[in-house]
Amino acid sequence: MARKRLLTKSKYLVGLQCSRYLWVMLNEPDRIPKPDTSTQHRFDEGHLIGEWAKKLFPDGIDIPADNFTNNLRQTEELLKKRKPLFEAGFMVDNTFSRIDILKPVNSDEWDIIEVKSSTGVKPVNIQDVSFQRYCCEKYGLKIRECFLMHINNEYIRQSEIDPEGLFTITEITAEVDRATNGIQQRIDNMFSTIIADKCLDVTIGEQCKSPYECPLKDECWNFLPENSVFDLHGDRNKKSLTLFGQGIHAIKDIPDDFTLSGKQEIQKDCETTGKPHIEKKVIRQFLNTLEYPQYYLDFETFSGAIPLFDGTRPYQQIPFQYSLHVVEKENATAKHYSFLADGTCDPRTEFLSSLKKVMGDNGSIVVYNQGFEKGVLNKLATVFPEYDEWVEGLNDRIIDLLAPFRSFHYYHPRQKGSASIKSVLPVLTGTSYDHLDISDGMDASLAFLDIITNNAPEEERIKIRKDLEKYCALDTEGMIWIVDKLKELIR
After folding, report:
1. Residue ranges of the DUF2779 domain (predicted)?
2. CA atoms of 399 and 65, how far apart (whole Å)
């Protein structure tokens, strides 16, 4: 069988996920959208994590990966030195893999150490390493054991980063053994896919979202109607795949005898009638819990695998911004207060100090998804105990505006099963986030990280800060509009 193209470990993982995705990647790569900001950040952070992992092997040799031919040649030469090798590359029978860390053991064996920015071992990591070992052993190396080096989320930074504390190393040899069963057949099948004349037809399935969201999903799902069965609330594809397999694509076409949850029944009714679902009595009871003055509050945070500040852990949410709209009494014009950290120092104490100055001692604090704001506040109180009593008082006053939407006491078919503010605000008020250059929390987090960790031009920094202010302000002002609209609906 002619093997005209190279199967790398990343393409092997793609092939495991979806054969159509694999064919497009090798034959029509222009069809694959470029990584979005979030995905690119994950790639960049993975490279940074890899550099920190190398520090655990001071006698290791870094093999440049930017030149394919030179990487293979240098790998062959440096294997003789019996030292840890970083990015060693192996190609056999048109399969190719680079190894994050290849560590010599005994006189003729090696260990594979794969480095990941996750905090634990995932099934896809096992498949990843199984392909690496396949390539190494095809080349003729003796592989003793396989390991995954991942982030230790219990590590607390103190002064300089300690690589030994930052990472945890987990042996995965037995799991890799099991994953290797049948690998040759899978590889042969992938080469058959790659050299096929045209793209294979693959039906919608779990592979569209697992282990990663497929970049071809929009292309493959474009035939589905608005409000398809895949928009069923809380479904996680179980019922939707069953319905899809029966040829049912639209929520409104779901048979009456098909078992749905209460919220899913509301979705179906709304699709059938074309009208929103409104439980006025329950919404009125919720609105009656709001006391003046009303404080509409929203936080923005960032996190990363490498903690930036002393006393912080990997992936800890660090608040850097808040927006606060205060409505003193019925029909009063809201007053806006905000905070956006400036500089590269730990923003938490300044964040707390600023927030305390503008939060009164009484009245309701309205947030959207209270678990997030309360979680941030509670962690701050743990680190800064002088704020503990004050934070406890704030938490007692918090009311979650998500509640009536999460419970489907109000639901509009254009929400597509979602209760997020990004879905609720447009259907209730006609206002969306689409006109903003920063339009979601992840974009906000990455934009802030960009201006504090990179040497961005001053003009760009000013624009990003303005965009952050606009985005966070819409979150809190939007909550006021939502409450006002709910009041109209129950009159």
Report:
1. 295-420
2. 53
